[in-house]
Amino acid sequence: MATSANALLCFFLFLLPLSINAATFQIVNRCSFTVWAAWVSTGPRTGGGSQLSPGQSWTINVNASTTGGRIWARTGCSFDSSGRGSCQTGDCGGVLQCQDYGRPPNTLAEFALNQFNNLDFFDISLVEGYNVGLDFSPTTGGCRGVRCSANIVGECPAPLRVPGGCNSPCAMFWTPEYCCTNGPCRPTIWDFFKRRCPDAYTSPQDDQTSTFTCPAGTNYSVTFCP
Questions:
Q1: What whole-number distance in Å separates Cα of residue 151 and Cα of residue 99?
Q2: Which residues, 6+ apart, have CB-to-CB distance to 21 below 8 Å?
Q3: Nearest CA among 123, 110, 109, 102 for reference residue 167
Q4: CA-CA distance, 137 to 131, in Å (whole number)?
Q5: Where do the structural domains in the chain lie, given as residue ranges?
Q6: Which of 26, 120, 138, 22 is nearest to 68 (CA)?
Q7: Residue that wins the pLDDT comparison between 181 and 13
Q8: Among the listed residues 50, 62, 38, the one whose alpha carbon sits nearest the alpha carbon of residue 112
Q9: 51 CB burial (10 A radius; 0-12, 13-18, 19+)
Q10: Where are the beta strands (DSSP E) in the chain?
Q11: Which residues contact 57 (CB under 8 A, 6 or more apart)?
């Protein structure tokens, strides 16, 4: 009996740091239209999705060992009763419950939990384009958040315009100068995003000022159309 009790105690002590450092994300739709929220993470691999009418929210709990994750809004979706269908932006393989990344353009809330120096790292990324405005902020931890809510879709340069969004130069053209695979990024079109959302991660070679940190165990809110 004593051996069983000790084993049970060790098991709960093992779980304790995970429960302390796990993060809760409240995903809120402030858009005037329905969005289909999505999230996917690695380490361990998991994900999901939920339809959110204006004003609705969805809460997810993310494992403390998550080394990389993203949350995004899908727009213009239609799903059948089995959860299969398609979206105009952010589609993740034609399913409601995402297990893979979305198709550009999609504004991304990216995160990695409890990493170097017991810190969470997070950002808003426009590397895969923009479909809705986004606010990514801590609700605990006493650290700052980041927002990108400019009218990027309405002001999108003609070469990057697609139905429902504004594509990134890399996703649109797939050339080395725009995907930054052979020397520095070509700045002309990437600068369009940076001028409108200076705190966002706007190109594959963007500076580190666009990555933010909070103590491990912080909880967050992700708001569409803030």
A1: 29
A2: 64, 113, 114, 118, 216, 217
A3: 102
A4: 19
A5: 22-224
A6: 120
A7: 181
A8: 62
A9: middle
A10: 23-29, 35-42, 46-52, 57-62, 68-74, 78-79, 85-86, 108-112, 119-125, 134-138, 146-148, 161-162, 165-166, 212-215, 220-224
A11: 26, 27, 28, 29
For the ranges 52-61, 76-85, 188-197, which has the lowest average pLDDT?
188-197
C-alpha pair distances (Å), 138 with each of 27, 121, 199 = 12, 11, 15
Dump pLDDT digits (tens) for 173-204.
888 877 877 777 766 677 889 899 999 988 77
- 3-class state of residue 46 by DSSP: strand
Output the CATH code of domain 22-224.
Answer: 2.60.110.10
Q: Rounded to an integer, what distance in angstroms lies between the CA atom of residue 129 and that of residue 69?
A: 17
Q: Cα 221 to the chain's mean position, in Å?
A: 11
Q: Locate 17 and state its tokens.
A: 């740091």
Q: How far apart (Å, rounded) are the C-alpha atoms in residues 110 and 89? A: 17
pTM score of the predicted model: 0.87
| 38 φ, ψ (degrees, to nearest 5) | -145, 150
C-beta separation of 56 from 77 below 8 A: no
> Which residue has 């966002």 as its token pair?
200
Amino acid of residue 56: Q
Q: What percent of the chain has pLDDT over 90?
A: 69
Helix, strand or coil, per DSSP, at residue 168: coil
For 95-106, the pLDDT digits (tens) are 999 999 999 999
